[in-house]
UniProtKB/TrEMBL annotation:
Record's keyword annotation contains Hydrolase: no
Membrane-traversing stretches: 12-35, 196-217
Annotated PANTHER family: SENSOR HISTIDINE KINASE CPXA
Subcellular location per the Swiss-Prot or TrEMBL entry: Cell membrane
Reaction it catalyzes: ATP + protein L-histidine = ADP + protein N-phospho-L-histidine
Protein name (database record): histidine kinase
InterPro entries: HAMP_dom (IPR003660), HATPase_C_sf (IPR036890), HATPase_dom (IPR003594), His_kinase_dom (IPR005467), HisK_dim/P_dom (IPR003661), HisK_dim/P_sf (IPR036097), HssS/ArlS-like (IPR050398), Sig_transdc_His_kin-like_C (IPR004358)
Listed Pfam families: HAMP, HATPase_c, HisKA
A single MF term (Gene Ontology): phosphorelay sensor kinase activity
Amino acid sequence: MSAFFLPNRLFIKLLIGFWLCSSLIILAVGSLPLLQQSHEAGEIPPPIMNVLQRVAEKLQRSPERLRNIRTMEGADIDHHRPLVAPPDADPTINFPGPRAEDPKRPRNMGEQPFHLFIFDAQGQLINSPRLPLTVRNNLLMISALERPSPRAFSFREEMFFGPIVFSANGENYRLYAGLPGPHRLPWFFFFIEHKLLTLSLAILLSGVLCALLAWHLGKPLMSLKLAANALAHGNLTNRVDEATSRRHDEIGELGIAFNSMADAIERMVNSQRRLISDISHELRTPLTRLQLALALARKRGFAGEETERIAYEADQLGQMIAELLELSRVTLKTPEEKVYVGLAESLSQVLDDAEFEAAQQGKNILIQIPEELVVPHYPRPLSRAIENLLRNAIRYAETEITLCASVEQNKVLIIIADDGPGIEEQELQAIFKPFYRPQSARDRETGGWGLGLAITEAAVAAHHGTISARNRIVGGLEVTMKLPLVG
């Protein structure tokens, strides 16, 4: 249980990754309304505040105008009258228009008017027959405040100021002013006004963060998968890359454990192969002595049926030991340089011998290997593999054997087929195991020791290739070798 709470664990990385992604999205979405509110509900600039207070004082001194407004719908007061910034106003403040005395003021720029809105104590608008939607929104924002005080609210279409409270005829009134026209807003208003774009950006950013997290976790897992597949295909030297095994989380520990397992498997398999090789070498000494004793016995006239039988079995044992040594040499990957020559040229001697052997048995071999086909290979193991397959095909074929080589998806395909009886389906995967002989080849006279195809499979594995067998629909066996085109 204590290991679960150690730092730098995969659980913590997943937790922090998703938590950070969610927190950033929530923070970004939640901060926009706060930024908007902090910008919209600002202080009224002093020059504009002074103008509004003077308007309120004027209405307070002339209460009859309010009565006229009530009865004559504001005809007596021009609430669209332009209000110009005073000469001593701050030039950085966005006023309704430039100073009247400013010589740089464009001729075609009219002074933008304040729109005045007056509400009585009951909240009724008394100087306009209709309440604009922006004004209604601003009033809702002001009413949401605990203590409404004069504030400035900014929108792209209008700036809104108020309330300015004043009394006339013993009643309280609230004065608001709106300044229409486009206004420069902060950058975050762009995201507030374009909600669909903001949502798309949030989805995109969250996708990028999740993709980075997935890549961080998926890349080492892919390395583990490739290493496991290579090990399963017989490449005992393949290991998880160093970047994965040096990670400080469960994936790194898994990579270290995998490499340790691969090291143990490689040592065990190599020890087994060396044991076979050592035993084969040790058997050669008593076998040589036995053959020498047989030769002496024949020389002294002790030849007979028993002696010939012993000689035959000694020869068989010698062939088996030679096969075991060849299998051990191929599987142990004795150092040998790869050659980059044409496949037909490299196999010329093997192909000539196979054609001669087939002709002696009245059979025909069709060979199709492009002259320009060059594949990096170890000459001796590959020649031995092709030789074993051709001899098996010649042994069991009725009349025809074919050998075709081609290139397909960066792989060299070598297909050897015959028109013989084939093999039982359940035995197709087992014929490449050492000492395995199909039911149809149990006789040692014809079936050998069951090491030829094992040597072939080991030679193909030394090239990092694959080999498989299947029965042909028209009859016979087809063996396919796939070798990498790039060494």
